[in-house]
Design a protein that fits this description.
Elements (H helix, E strand, L loop, with lengths): L2 H8 L1 H22 L3 H7 L8 E6 L2 E6 L3 H20 L3 E4 L5 E3 L2 E3 L3 E5 L18 E5 L6 H13 L4 E6 L4 E6 L3 E6 L3 E4 L3 E7 L11
Parallel strand pairs: 7-8
Antiparallel strand pairs: 1-2, 3-6, 4-5, 6-7, 8-9, 9-10, 11-12
Length: 215
């Protein structure tokens, strides 16, 4: 066991903290010398700590900021509803915000994603998926730039994602996108269905936008 391996084994938390402190500088240097996705991937492992995650966008490394509590809670409530549905309808699997998918030449991590059994017929990939999910769900956080979100949605659809849900907790709306870039916006009074991907699934939006109340 070399010194690095010993340090990780003895105090993994301290090692992750040290990596997190220097990660922005590493990313900047990599992007400045990277000529495309291949070179970026060569130099950047998928380093994940509790606050930072890495995506590959247009051949460059981007740090994905973790969502706020409201955005995270909304994503989890959606995931729970779909998860309950999938317990009764064994048509695929659900994945969280730490799952990486290949979106064209990019590597993306949707907040919630669904993959059909057809795409998983050879089993779940051990690391990143070399395919796009059937359904990608993005929950808007306060730090998200809307222009980047729309660009991401377009790339999802071009890569074969059948439907993208753009969830906005602040406005209590869900915009449902389908190829080529058609969208329909639902409000808190609506019920979201997804017959093409999740037959029979019904999600009253008031159930995901509810606010916890004290007894």
């Amino acid at each position: 066991m070399n010194l690095i391996e010993r340090a990780i084994a003895e105090n993994p938390g301290a090692v992750l903290t040290a990596v997190a402190n220097v990660l922005p500088e590493i990313v900047e240097k990599i992007n400045s010398r990277s000529n495309g996705q291949t070179e970026a991937e060569e130099y950047v492992p998928k380093l994940i700590d509790p606050e930072k995650q890495i995506e590959i966008v247009d051949g460059k490394v981007e740090i994905k900021e973790m969502p706020g509590l409201r955005s995270s809670g909304t994503a989890m409530r959606i995931a729970v509803k779909i998860g309950i549905y999938l317990e009764k309808n064994l048509i695929g699997e659900l994945y969280g915000a730490d799952a990486t998918f290949t979106i064209g030449k990019d590597e993306r991590m949707p907040d919630v994603s669904f993959v059909s059994n057809e795409k998983l017929k050879d089993g779940e990939p051990v690391t990143k998926a070399d395919f796009a999910p059937d359904l990608a769900i993005e929950v808007v956080s306060p730090t998200d730039a809307y222009s980047k979100i729309l660009k991401k949605i377009r790339k999802y659809l071009e890569a074969g994602v059948k439907q993208v849900w753009l969830v906005e907790p602040e406005f209590h709306t869900v915009a449902v996108y389908q190829p080529p870039m058609k969208s329909e916006t639902l409000t808190v009074e609506d019920t979201l269905s997804c017959e093409e991907i999740l037959p029979g699934f019904q999600l009253p939006l008031k159930e995901i936008f509810r606010q916890p109340k004290a007894e």
